[in-house]
């Protein structure tokens, strides 16, 4: 069986603050196969973006443990010049805020051409021609004119398309899409996700999709990792997660989704709030908000139990001898 394209094992990322060391990512395991779309889901502050930035070695925190392998190589062991060849060349990333991710003082064309010059050693004329082709590919109207415009002259949707053009410029094997539809209206969100799927098929890329939008996950992902308070609490196929959710947090997230077929409905709310990373309990971080909590939950951290083949959940309800029912 071939090795996964991306393999993250027991990743731990800490931030040093005035209040002490704060764990943002606490032992994350995650795999992405070649050509596959894997979603990393969770509410704000769960550690999704820190995990993605750790892959790119762009986060301000400190990796305190674990390993990140890409194509069989440990990214942490690469020198910075070697990592620069991977970053943008073999792994592309769409950052969360297109409005702030593009450099406001450079024209759009120059920002795309810079990537092509760095990774493909193209001259100015060839880089410009390739940049024009990329803008056409991502569906930007009048691409010749857009090359010579500054980011502030573009709409939010066009900025996001420029970000995608930069991310796919070197035909990466893996594309990390961090909240690619944030701050866009619903119609543009759908267009961006359809564009990403089309580009993925054309280029044969794997996609690590980071989002809190379960509707996007249901339509575009193959496998799902649900993250809460810095840990993966459930992972499985899209069908597993949406049809047979096994962790109380996943069930609560799905319970909060509106049903389009029901005209008037009362949505479920998850009681309480996410614990501070600086004050996490010894056991399950969701324990205080969970109606199924019982004796081991506050004091013992649950491992990922196998619910069925390829479907695992970090909940004591799935222990071999559980108390209570899930």
Structural features:
32% helix; 326 residues; eight-stranded mixed beta sheet; 12 strands; four-stranded antiparallel beta sheet; alpha/beta; 11 helices
Shape: globular
Give me the Rg, rounded. Answer: 21 Å
Structural class: alpha/beta
Distance between the termini: 34 Å
Strand arrangement in the largest pleated sheet: 6-7-8-3-9-10-12-11
- Give the count of helical stretches: 11
Would you report the number of β strands?
A: 12
Uncertain spans: none
The main β sheet shows up as: 8 strands, mixed
Strand content: 15-25%
Helix content: 25-40%
Element-by-element helix/strand order: EEEHEEHEHHHHHEHEHEEHHEE
Global mean pLDDT? 91
Could you characterize what this model shows?
This protein is α/β, with parallel strands linked by helices and 326 residues long. It has eleven helices and twelve strands. It has helices spanning 48-56, 80-86, 98-101, 108-120, 124-137, 143-146, 156-168, 186-203, 214-220, 238-243, 248-255, and strands at residues 6-17, 20-32, 37-41, 62-70, 73-74, 91-94, 174-178, 206-211, 223-228, 231-237, 305-308, 311-313. The strands form two sheets. It has an eight-stranded mixed beta sheet, sandwiched between helices. The chain has a four-stranded antiparallel beta sheet with strand order 2-1-4-5. A hairpin with a 2-residue loop joins strand 4 (62-70) and strand 5. The longest helix has 18 residues, at 186-203. It starts with 5 loop residues before the first strand and ends in a 13-residue tail after the last strand.
